[in-house]
Amino acid sequence: MKTLISPNSFKPEWSFSLLDDAAPANYEIDGEKFSFDPLSADAVVTTETRYQYSDVNVVAIQHALQQTGLKAQPVDVIVTLPISEYLDANNQKNKQNIERKKKM
Question: Which part of the chain is the Plasmid segregation protein ParM/StbA N-terminal domain (predicted)?
């Protein structure tokens, strides 16, 4: 097992840097452009519920996988939902939200 913590430095649109040690990583998913930019002040807020189902969340997972240095291979990724999304108003599993997250 390999664990990696990747800071939240994703922003919409691509970035560039003149500094090699702070070079951003650019990604495109379904026609939307994102970048991992450790120097940007425009990072996407990850504490909002909509982030859980967003393309930038998928990009963040891809970026983290690339940072591990693993060769291309099948991997198991475990993701979570905030408790407010995992449970419904009756404190039961919110199957719709769980399935929505699985489809990402």
Answer: 1-103
CB 25 within 8 A of CB 71: no
Round to whole Å and give the CA distance between 38 and 35: 9
Q: Residue 11: in which H helix or E strand, if any? A: strand 10-12
Give yes or no for a contact between 74 and 64, defined as CB atoms under 8 angstroms apart: no
Q: 């990696």: which residue's tokens?
A: 4
DSSP for 14-44, written as a single string:
----S-GGG--EEEEETTEEEEE-TT-S-PP
pTM of the prediction? 0.77
Q: What is the mean pLDDT of the chain?
A: 87
User: Residue 10 phi/psi, 5° resolution?
Assistant: -95, 140
